[in-house]
Amino acid sequence: MVAEYRWLSFTGSQRKKLNGHGNDNVAYLNGFAGITKESPFSIGQTLSSSNGVYELGFFSLNNSQNQYLGIWFKSIIPQVVVWVANREKPVTDSAANLGISSNGSLLLSNGKHGVVWSTGDIFASNGSRAELTDHGNLVFIDKVSGRTLWQSFEHLGNTLLPTSIMMYNLVAGEKRGLTAWKSYTDPSPGEFVALITPQVPSQGIIMRGSTRYYRTGPWAKTRFTGSPQMDESYTSPFILTQDVNGSGYFSFVERGKPSRMILTSEGTMKVLVHNGMDWESTYEGPANSCDIYGVCGPFGLCVVSIPPKCKCFKGFVPKFAKEWKKGNWTSGCVRRTELHCQGNSSGKDANVFYTVPNIKPPDFYEYANSQNAEECHQNCLHNCSCLAFSYIPGIGCLMWSKDLMDTRQFSAAGELLSIRLARSELDVNKRKMTIVASTVSLTLFVIFGFAAFGFWRCRVEHNAHISNDAWRNFLQSQDVPGLEFFEMNAIQTATNNFSLSNKLGPGGFGSVYKGKLQDGREIAVKRLSSSSGQGKQEFMNEIVLISKLQHRNLVRVLGCCVEGTEKLLIYGFLKNKSLDTFVFGGSLLTPFV
């Protein structure tokens, strides 16, 4: 969102009345003229850069009576303020003006209410003047010496313009960054500050008070490594340089269109380019909750998802498991197996490195002079205090000796990070893989075994079905009158599943059971034993012959049942006499059994 600011515009007659005299000041008659001791700058006047891009003047916010002295883009609507002089103390008197004091300082007075802002004691000559440059820089120049005594680019607000810089100087103890507005209608300093760090290589950070809120990742010649959008296709507008004297400078270039970098009151850094109609964002950070500093704690890894989630690096476990499960990840992770480092690469206790791809490099890195990735690896391996390393194109070798903090994993891009682990961590992984492989193999064996058994059963039942149909077709072809074909379940029900209480006795080729059909008929069932030696042909011949023999002294055959290996003959039951008596033990003629 781009803030919209209301500013005051006056006609020539209104300006005369406010100034208290009839001469229009040169500051608004001549768009690129400066402010001199003889020509103070008042409410209602504007001072333009010679190229007409920027303008200096007084403005108000949210229809307030408070007035601020600031710089904005002259021709862009809604108006966007890029610098404010008196951001903490607005003026309320219509007689307020910006002028040059007797000692040569540039100061803003609130009418009769005193001075609200100044450049400090500069002691300029009488020929000093303030001008607005084509880059949007308000400069205070000593015309006698030609020196720039003061400039707004050295006193940044919430906006960085092309050619203005953020910087640090360790020798002078100087640092220059951006300070967010308190809100979009209050330009006083907010809680967020953007800086570049004196690390080698440097990185951009946003502080929230005294706490880190966001960081870009280390600079790699043309890109920040923590920004996946800065891939090979990205044309970076940024410039970051560091020198051996302990100084660093960061700026960005304009590419033919008005552009600016702003630190919003919510703590977001944006690079915005005006396309003629609106502002387009070409860079933004933080872009999601994984970008918030340290969200997953030490040795935690933030993975962008919906919603984002944290996980521990391999070889690490949550420090507080209950809190971790609740989504409170800030306590981070701890090692599962402590390191035992002797500074060598051999032996059973030797450490190993586990590589994780697509990583935003953690914070608190140290630059190490290595010629290539293998040398970087060896240097870290032989240094027991080195917990991880990464060889990054455009930087070289980075090492970590502190907790890995503020690390996230992208779906693509990012860097390779190698983490030192105890060798047993990889052995544990191998054992787990062996167990998993064994379990999978056993499961597949059991599945295939059941499948083979089922296939065999189907084949047996299919063959039995075919055999049963063949027997039935044969018997039907013999034209045996009154012969019934019984189902096995009907006979099992009739004989109470061939229970001992229903057994009448043994026959020549099997046992005989008494039964009662559902229609009330009493039967005697001769169940041929599988070891009887009576084959299919003998069994079928017996049925045909006995069925065709009808005599009052012969037991009558009602039918048969053939199912699988079971062969049953069903006779009519003779009351008061046992089938055993008539068939096997009596003087009567017996059937062929």
UniProtKB/TrEMBL annotation:
InterPro entries: Bulb-type_lectin_dom, Bulb-type_lectin_dom_sf, Kinase-like_dom_sf, Pan_app, Prot_kinase_dom, S_locus_glycoprot_dom, Ser-Thr/Tyr_kinase_cat_dom. Residues 498-593 form the Protein kinase domain. It is a single-pass type I membrane protein. Residues 341-423 form the Apple domain. The keyword Glycoprotein applies. CDD domains: B_lectin, PAN_AP_plant. GO terms for biological process: recognition of pollen. The chain crosses the membrane at residues 433-456. This is S-locus lectin protein kinase family protein.
